[in-house]
Amino acid sequence: MLSYPSSRMICGAAIAGLAATLNAAPALAYVGPGAGLTALGTMIAVIAVVLLAVVGFVWYPLKRLLRRNKPADDRQEPQ
Predict the structure, then answer these.
(1) Alpha-carbon 50 to chain mean position
(2) How many CA atoms lie within 13 A of 56 on its CB side?
(3) What is the pLDDT of residue 16?
């Protein structure tokens, strides 16, 4: 039988993680322009993928459903 962690254990782990995050020393690292542009391009690509996924999974089926509910005489025949 599986035993699930108690809420006290989860809360303790969250507090320990938060304390470790707030106690971290600065890295004092330099991010060059190549890495910065790569990170910026990656963020733009991820946003574009999410938007295209929304269009693909929501808009096109909705559009097809709305087109199916139109009367037959309103539909235009492809030429």
Answers:
(1) 6
(2) 6
(3) 93
